[in-house]
């Protein structure tokens, strides 16, 4: 019988400390400690994030091992997020992973967080379907918005990216001016369900090639609120649902137009999304519609694997393990790690 390979995945790139155990591409545990501390500041405070990672990492790893029903000495390898992300946060996870791999005398595997958001689709479970290569990968998160040509697991070519704010960042910043708490993507999503997406119209930027831009739209939205609030003090509360629906409609339209351009130019209709904003119900609906109307083959991750999680780090660890792609103890955490 095949020897079980238990891979521990550790994720600490931003404000969530997460650990998961993967065995032969299946998830045995997927644990996360969310950091509530940032809510009161309306965004992630890097120094507080690193400190919270330090307090959370041991209990989260313990919980992941316990839920998987194994002990640390049964682990085969440790995969951790090398980047991109906040340097202080990455350092906590990478130092912990290195120490643990050294102590257990097992291989260490460095993982690119953005690759992991896409490769999460290779987890083996009922509600997931692994895409064939090549596919168009679309990462939609708080720090990134990327269109990627994925030729193989670790052969990815960046086709386009945001020139300024990421899509999740635009959700969060616009939510903040409406008085919603951080991160406000999920709140905008649920308020938008009862609003009219055509109530207000916001500009779609004209950006060449496959790049996108969100800061102009964000500024237009903030100015629109400012102008209207001067005339009607309770404008935002009165129109909150319509504002959320119209804003969400435009944020999604921007990326959908670019995905459509990439599909057209590459003639690859296989579209795989990942990252926190892939939890958004409107983008899920619009992509499902594209499947019907334009025959796109669309891959949307289950909710547990949209926002930052360690199962995605673990699956990349498992894929790299089978390809003998091991990391080294002197690898440096890289806040701007590229594909
Ligand atoms: O991938 P992620 O967990 O972290 C980064 O790598 O950045 O993404 C977090 C982002 C946040 O901006 C959050 O507001 C957004 O994902 N988000 C959503 C939804 N759920 C999370 N945005 C829109 N609709 C949602 N349902
Ligand atoms: Zn992420």
Number of helices: 10
* Gyration radius, in Å: 20 Å
* Amino- and carboxy-terminal Cα gap: 36 Å
Shape: globular
Biggest sheet strand order reads: 3-2-1-4-5
Portion in beta strands: 15-25%
Secondary-structure element order, N to C: EEEHEHEHEEEHHHHHEHEH
**Using DSSP, what is the number of strands?**
10
Helix content: 40-55%
- Structural class determined from secondary elements: alpha/beta
Whole-number average pLDDT? Answer: 96
- Which cofactor or ligand species appear? 5'-O-[(R)-(carboxyoxy)(hydroxy)phosphoryl]adenosine, zinc ion
Low-confidence stretches: none
Largest sheet geometry: 5 strands, mixed
What does this protein look like?
- The chain is α/β, with parallel strands linked by helices and 339 residues long.
- It has ten helices and ten strands.
- The chain has helices at residues 46-68, 87-104, 113-119, 167-177, 185-192, 215-231, 235-238, 240-266, 281-294, 311-322; strands at residues 6-11, 16-23, 26-34, 77-83, 108-112, 135-140, 145-152, 155-161, 270-274, 297-299.
- The strands form two sheets. Strands 3-2-1-4-5 form a five-stranded mixed β-sheet, with helices on both faces. It has a five-stranded mixed β-sheet with strand order 8-7-6-9-10.
- β6 (135-140) and β7 (145-152) form a beta hairpin.
- α1 packs parallel to α2, α4 packs antiparallel against α8 and α5 (185-192) crosses α8.
- It is globular.
- The mean pLDDT is 96.
- Bound molecules: 5'-O-[(R)-(carboxyoxy)(hydroxy)phosphoryl]adenosine and zinc ion.
- The site of 5'-O-[(R)-(carboxyoxy)(hydroxy)phosphoryl]adenosine has 18 residues, from α4 and α5.
- Zinc ion binds at residues 113, 117, 141, 275, 308.
């Amino acid at each position: 019988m095949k020897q079980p390979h238990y891979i521990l995945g550790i994720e600490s790139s931003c404000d969530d400390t997460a650990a998961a155990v993967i065995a032969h591409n299946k998830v045995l545990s997927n644990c996360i400690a969310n950091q509530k501390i940032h809510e009161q500041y309306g965004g992630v405070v890097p120094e507080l994030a690193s400190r919270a990672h330090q307090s959370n990492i041991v209990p989260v790893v313990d919980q992941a091992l316990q839920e998987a029903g194994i002990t640390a000495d049964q682990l085969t390898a440790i995969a951790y997020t090398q980047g991109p992300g906040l340097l202080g946060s990455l350092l906590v996870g990478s130092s912990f992973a290195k120490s643990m791999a050294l102590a257990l005398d097992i291989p260490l595997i460095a993982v690119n967080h953005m690759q992991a958001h896409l490769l999460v689709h290779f987890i083996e479970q009922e509600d997931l379907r692994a895409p064939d290569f090549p596919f168009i990968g679309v990462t939609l998160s708080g720090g990134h918005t990327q269109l990627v040509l994925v030729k193989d697991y670790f052969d990815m070519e960046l086709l386009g990216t945001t020139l300024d704010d990421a899509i999740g960042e635009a959700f969060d910043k616009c939510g903040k001016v409406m008085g919603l708490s951080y991160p406000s993507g999920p709140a905008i999503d649920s308020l938008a369900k009862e609003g009219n997406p055509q109530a207000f119209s916001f500009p779609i930027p004209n950006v060449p090639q496959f790049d996108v831009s969100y800061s102009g739209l964000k500024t237009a939205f903030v100015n629109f609120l400012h102008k209207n609030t001067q005339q009607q003090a309770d404008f935002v509360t009165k129109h909150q649902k319509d504002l959320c629906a119209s804003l969400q409609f435009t944020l999604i339209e921007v990326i959908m137009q670019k995905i459509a351009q990439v599909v057209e130019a590459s003639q690859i209709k296989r579209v795989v999304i990942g990252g926190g904003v892939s939890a958004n119900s409107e983008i899920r609906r619009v992509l499902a519609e594209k499947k019907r109307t334009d025959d796109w083959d669309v891959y949307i991750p289950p909710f547990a694997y949209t926002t930052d999680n360690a199962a995605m780090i673990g699956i990349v660890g498992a894929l790299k393990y089978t390809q003998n792609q091991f990391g080294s103890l002197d690898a440096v955490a890289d806040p701007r790690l590229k594909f």
